[in-house]
Amino acid sequence: MLEVNRDxxxxxxxxxxxxxxxxxxxxxxxxxxxxxxVRGQRLxxxxxxxxxxxxxxxxxxSNHRLRPRxxxxxxxxxxxxxxxxxxxxxxxxxxxxxxxxxxCSVTCCKLEDFAPPAAQNCTDPEIRSFDRGFLLxxxxxxxxxxxxxxxxxxxxxxxxxxxxxxxxxxxxxxxxQDGLYLLRAGGLALLRRITLDPLGGxxxxxxxxxxxxSPEDCALDRLEVAGLVRWVGRRx
Length: 236
Prior knowledge:
Layout: H1 6-14, H2 22-36, H3 40-47, H4 51-58, H5 68-83, E1 103-110, E2 126-131, H6 132-137, E3 146-150, E4 165-169, E5 179-185, E6 188-196, E7 202-206, E8 216-219, E9 225-233
Parallel strand pairs: 1-3
Antiparallel strand pairs: 1-2, 3-4, 4-9, 5-6, 5-9, 6-7, 7-8
Helix pairs in contact: 1-2, 1-5, 3-4, 3-5
């Protein structure tokens, strides 16, 4: 295994193997843990990931590569630990109980009141509870990065209607997969569908409402990402 000194550790953190094989990802994760001096469970808890996900992956029982959002969460926690090796694991959102069950509190606000990039910047937020196991199943970058945003406007009709509940991962600041994103534009948060160009470097920005202007292609580095929508809930 690669000797993990400080320089090697930073290279591991800065170059997660998004396109690597299972074995390449597994070797990367083991080297990362060695460099940080932590076990898989400790890294998973700090990243807001179910420890069983990391343990299963490390024990060779998994036939699936780590998803980009899982790698992003591990990198974020590794960066935190590398800057302060004695840092304690962050709380699992408002005193959540140990294990994968129990309630978690999530900040809630209207889309027009949402001030990106952080959920904590919502104006006059409410607090709503979700099951912790359910939130972890969404594989957020961290439970503390989740915000519940109430949709408004008609740009995403018929997919998203006014009042729909959007669980947004505010820890996602770069676009690595297709999906619904909150983008920052002129201090406002806009909900848009992003489709990556397979050739890289570009993305198509669209609304689902055909009454809106035609889709436009945009360079990824011009898009200011406020978060990725992980889940949509609707009252019938």
